[in-house]
Specification:
Layout (H helix, E strand, L loop, with lengths): L1 H28 L7 H14 L1 H12 L4 E5 L2 E4 H17 L7 E5 L4 H12 L3 E4 L6 H10 L4 E4 L4 H7 L5 E3 L13 H7 L15 E4 L9 E4 L8 H4 L9 E4 L6 H12 L3 E3 L6 H11 L3 E4 L1 H7 L4 H7 L5 E4 L6 H11 L3 E7 L3 E6 L1 H6 L12 E5 L5 E2 L6 E6 L6 E2 L8 E2 L2 E10 L5 E6 L4 E3 L2 E3 L1 H8 L5 E11 L3 E10 L7 H9 L10 E4 L18
Helix pairs in contact: 2-3, 3-4, 3-10, 4-5, 4-8, 6-7
């Protein structure tokens, strides 16, 4: 009994220290203030009672209601305008029979109606499933049935997909161009019809957000995220220098973990979020310049396309940027070096997963010293390596399975019987990696992607990173192919830079001179593109 009491007290002390450190991080970023404790406590209570996104909005309403909250192709919405519109939409949903505990799926690109739909659902305790805009009809039907969606909010462009999937549930149109026929009423109609000034009952529990895993190795799984403490934002703010009242361009999809999390953090900081429905590198650069953005959040493939612009043009338009946050898929060392050379010391590589959220962040200084690293864990998070016998690995340069965890970790999958391995409270990321002598983390590759060639373990990512440095290569993917002698050998799919003269054997020799024999591709196939999902992750099974 005494031991239990001691462990309980120790746990309480650890939580208190962690909370204090988290508050210090929020204070440094301007999200909280030690000189205004009442306001800070109300902000913490808002997140606990209303969820992270609605809680962040309520906090911003008290501090700067007339500040610009969201900028899209339709213009600017202040925090007060977001509040009024989301309240009206919440009332309209209640009037149409949606109740706390129901689930509404959202299939939208990045714009105000996606944000308003999330806010409205959160205000009445309705769960939201953020659906990947790249889904085919069978995937869409499968996810909506599995998540028991009571309705679908969609952009007009996706109405043909809904018809192909033969969905039988109420639909509401968000972005109306193109104008779909028979798709259902628009969210704008619902806002207009809501009774002005009607009371909005508060639910007993806030609605949660379900984020879908990438599905690169199988069916996408629903990961429920229900953050109840504003201190969780410290997981991002500890190692990324975001500050209150800035302007952030969110190019990463808001329907994915990185986009959703950064939207919430930006609102918590009372900052302005700029979004575009579609990614275009030139338009992004001009929008960053016109809005004076200090932060850009994107995925590595977007960064690659951005760096294809004229360097002088890019430096001029991105001169206000202090941080470029990259996440969602592997940041190749060559891309990190190129970005630093063009943009300066502004690149932050965020490593995490839909389940674990934040695992590690590499700062510009760490990327300069070790371009392939994903850095270190923020305070409040933890990353550990374990071997095949679940023993912890502490030796540098020794590969192991990566387990991670923090305050933003998911609360579980929405599908019964589906789980993710845990050790010591940390979640299996599905990746294999190692620490170097300085304690920096490196991701060697997905455990599922490992190839055994001639009894040697090979991770395709290492070979891909090398081939990507070839001056004539635009993109590359490497998979394993059956081989009678070695069991498996590597097959590389290479996308040449337009106009470049490249022969497959040139790539073979390029790798042979730099890596061990078992890592040299047996076959190189020149292709026009390699399959990637909306966050830039390779879909290797499509190449098998």
């Amino acid at each position: 009994m005494a031991r239990d009491d001691h462990e309980g007290r120790s746990g309480s002390v650890r939580r208190a220290v962690q909370n204090l450190r988290g508050f210090q991080v929020l204070t440094r970023a301007g999200m909280a203030s030690a000189t205004a404790p009442a306001t800070a406590l109300r902000g913490l209570a808002d997140v606990r009672d209303h969820g992270p996104l609605v809680g962040a909005l309520r906090h911003a309403l008290r501090t700067r209601p007339n500040a610009a909250a969201l900028v899209d192709e339709h213009g600017t919405l202040t925090y007060a305008e977001l509040d009024r519109a989301s309240r009206a939409l919440a009332l309209a949903l209640l009037e149409r029979g949606f109740e706390p505990g129901h689930t509404i799926a959202v299939l939208c690109r990045d714009h105000r109606w996606l944000v308003l739909a999330q806010l409205a659902c959160g205000r009445i305790g309705v769960h939201v499933v953020l659906v990947n805009t790249g889904f085919a009809a069978p995937q869409l039907a499968d996810v909506l049935a599995r998540e028991d969606a009571a309705a679908l909010v969609l952009d007009g462009e996706f109405h043909p997909l809904v018809q192909e999937a033969r969905l039988r549930l109420p639909c509401f149109v968000a972005w109306q161009a193109p104008q779909p026929r028979g798709a259902g009423p628009s969210l704008a109609d619902l806002v207009a019809e809501a009774e002005d000034g009607a009371p909005l009952p508060e639910p007993d529990r806030p609605g949660s957000v379900v984020l879908l895993t990438s599905g690169t190795t199988g069916r996408p799984k629903g990961a429920r995220r229900q953050v109840r403490s504003a201190l969780a934002a410290a997981d991002f703010l500890d190692r990324i220098p975001l500050r209150a009242h800035e302007r952030t361009f969110l190019a990463a999809p808001l329907s994915h973990a990185i986009g959703f999390s950064q939207l919430t953090v930006a609102f918590g900081l009372g900052s302005t979020v700029v979004v575009h429905r579609r990614f275009d590198p030139g338009q992004l650069a001009r929008a960053v310049h016109e809005n004076g953005c200090t932060c850009v959040v994107l995925v590595p493939t977007m960064l690659h396309r951005l760096l294809e612009l004229d360097e002088r043009f890019l430096r001029e338009l991105l001169s206000s940027v202090r941080s470029v946050v990259v996440s969602g898929s592997v940041l190749a060392p060559a891309l990190a070096q190129r970005a630093s050379a063009v943009l300066g010391d502004v690149l932050y590589n965020l490593y995490g997963s839909t389940e674990a959220a934040v695992a590690a962040v590499a700062t510009p200084r760490e990327l300069a010293a070790a371009p392939g690293t994903v850095g270190r864990s923020p305070r409040g998070c933890a990353v550990r390596l374990y071997d095949e016998h679940n023993r912890r690995i502490t030796r540098p340069h020794t590969a192991g399975r990566i387990f991670a965890g923090g305050q933003l970790a998911f609360t579980g999958y929405t599908t019964a019987g589906v789980g993710r391995g845990r050790i010591d409270g940390l979640i299996d990321t599905g990746d294999v990696g190692h620490f170097d002598g300085d304690g920096l983390l490196f991701v060697d590759g997905r455990a599922d992607d490992m190839i055994i060639s001639g009894a040697e373990n090979v991770f395709p990512a290492e070979v891909e990173n090398l081939i990507a440095t070839h001056q004539a290569v635009k993109d590359v993917a490497v998979i394993g192919a059956e081989d009678a002698e070695f069991g498996q050998r590597l097959r590389a799919f290479v996308v040449p830079i337009p106009g470049a003269e490249l022969e497959p054997q040139e790539i073979v020799e390029f790798v042979r001179r730099r890596l061990a024999r078992h890592k040299v591709p047996r076959e190189v196939v020149l292709v026009k593109s390699v399959p990637r999902n909306t966050t830039g992750k390779l879909v290797r099974r499509a190449l098998a």
